[in-house]
Each structure stands twice: as structure tokens, then as C-alpha cells.
Design goal:
It is built from twelve helices and no strands. By secondary structure, it is mainly α. The protein has one domain.
Length: about 270
């Protein structure tokens, strides 16, 4: 989990450094290109050519379209909001997913899960403060990104019944590569050496974060993984304060605590 936490934190710093200089579509294109190359090598090295095939291409297209939108909103948010606020809003993804899965997949939504959802969104209200003068459209963008990620997670649940994880990742990169390529054309700029470095950090940490998370899931309990994963929020708050002088007040801490409590309730109700 240390690898996961550090990967997500470094990815956020890289995204912040690239904001305003390199368009997000260009960053996502390079991320997909490198990911496609690495995942293809892994599949070939395992001699599992069947992982390149799928019978659910329409579901892959829908899932990866939502995931692309989620990524775009997340990276845009990194350049407009405090890093800790972006991460805090991102932690609402499991609750959005529970709501979407109950509607689309007819998953049972227990009373304890509904309580967790209410507590989580109360925490979000403390963090984003919609009634204040500081509520920005960027906050709505990140909330929509979290919703899109949740749709993608629901799609992953459907796909995982008949597709290997490497197949899902392969088609994610394959589908998102041309989307990023087309959308980045009007904004393409030649990155400097430093910017190329940050772009490759985004691409590499995207792979290492998910690899480390998967390994952690195999070696310890879900409760431990989720609890440790939540530690990237205080870490990114500290980094945001140290490098960008970003505040993280008492109200935001209260909202974060509510989301954390909601996550623990959600985990307990899923057992």
C-alpha cells in the first residue's frame, strides 16, 4: 500500500505541475500509449494471446468512455482546486458506485449502506461548502469525475465476470488512445524535457498505483487496504501545504473524517 499511496501522490503532483502548460488530453494520450505498450508486453510474456480477445466490446466502449471522462475531470481539478479537496471528493466513488450498481445491476442496497452514503455526502458538503462564496465550478467538475469513475467501476464489475483483468486494462488503453489522440490535436504542444518527465511520471504511476493496489488486495484484508489507502489524503494535504501553500481547515478535516467513517460502515455492511 505504500507503493499505491506514493504513486497516487506523485501522480497528483505531476498533474499539478503540468496544469496550465500541457493540455490534459495530451497527458491522457501519452498515458494510454505507454499503458498499451506495457500491458501488451505483459500479455505476450505470459503467452496469453487469448487476453487480447473479448466478446463484450460494447461494454468496454461504454466503460472506458466514462473512465476517460473521469480521468479528464480529475486532472482538470488538480490544476484548479487544493489537492486535498480533489482527493477527498474522489473518495466518494464507492458510494456513487453503490447507488449506480443498485439501479443498473439491481444490487441490494442495505440500510447500513444507505446510512454510509448519507454520512459520506454530508462529509462532501463540509469539504466543498456549496453555500459559501468559494464554491467553484471546478468542484462540480471533480464531483462529476467521481460519478464517471463510479460508472466505470460498475462497468468493470460487469466485465470482470467474463474478462481477465489484463484484458480489461488492454481495452481501456486501446479505446482511450484514439480518443485522446483526436481530442489533443487542437492543443498539441511540444513538451520541454521537464514536462516530458512529468508526463511519463503520470503514465508510470498510473500503472504502479493499480499494480500495488492489486497486490495489496491479494495479501491483506479489504478493510486494511481501504484504511491505508485513505492515508493518501493527509499525505497529499501535507504535500499541498508544503509545495503550494494550500490550506486544509478544521471544517475540511471534519468532512474528511465523516467520509472515512462512512467507508468503514460500507466495508462492514459488505461482509
Amino acid at each position: 500500500m505504500t507503493g499505491t499511496i506514493c504513486s497516487f501522490a506523485l501522480m497528483a503532483i505531476a498533474g499539478r505541475e503540468l496544469s496550465g502548460t500541457i493540455n490534459t488530453f495530451q497527458v491522457l494520450f501519452v498515458r494510454s500509449l505507454l499503458g498499451l505498450f506495457v500491458i501488451s508486453l505483459i500479455i505476450l510474456s505470459l503467452n496469453k494471446a487469448q487476453y487480447f480477445k473479448t466478446s463484450q466490446i460494447k461494454t468496454h466502449l461504454l466503460r472506458n468512455s466514462f473512465h476517460f471522462l473521469g480521468q479528464y475531470g480529475w486532472f482538470v481539478g488538480l490544476g484548479l482546486l487544493p489537492l486535498s479537496q480533489v482527493f477527498a471528493i474522489e473518495f466518494t466513488v464507492p458510494f456513487w458506485t453503490a447507488i449506480i450498481a443498485s439501479v443498473v445491476l439491481k444490487d441490494h442496497l442495505s440500510a447500513s449502506k444507505m446510512i454510509a452514503i448519507v454520512i459520506a455526502f454530508a462529509g462532501v458538503l463540509f469539504i466543498v461548502k456549496p453555500a459559501s462564496d468559494h464554491f467553484e465550478s471546478a468542484t462540480l467538475i471533480v464531483l462529476l469525475a467521481a460519478f464517471c469513475y463510479s460508472c466505470a467501476h460498475t462497468g468493470t464489475k460487469v466485465l470482470s465476470k467474463h474478462n481477465n483483468t489484463l484484458t480489461i486494462l488492454f481495452y481501456m488503453c486501446l479505446i482511450q488512445l484514439p480518443i485522446g489522440a483526436v481530442l489533443m490535436i487542437p492543443y498539441w504542444t511540444v513538451p520541454s524535457m521537464v514536462e516530458w518527465g512529468w508526463i511519463f511520471i503520470v503514465a508510470i504511476t498510473a500503472l504502479t498505483a493499480h499494480f500495488c493496489m492489486t497486490k495489496a488486495m491479494l495479501t491483506t484484508t479489504v478493510t486494511t487496504v481501504v484504511t491505508l489507502d485513505f492515508m493518501r489524503l493527509p499525505l497529499i494535504a501535507l504535500l499541498g501545504f508544503a509545495f503550494y501553500q494550500e490550506p486544509f481547515g478544521a471544517v475540511s478535516i471534519l468532512g474528511t473524517a465523516l467520509i472515512f467513517v462512512a467507508m468503514l460502515i460500507n466495508i462492514k455492511s459488505s461482509r
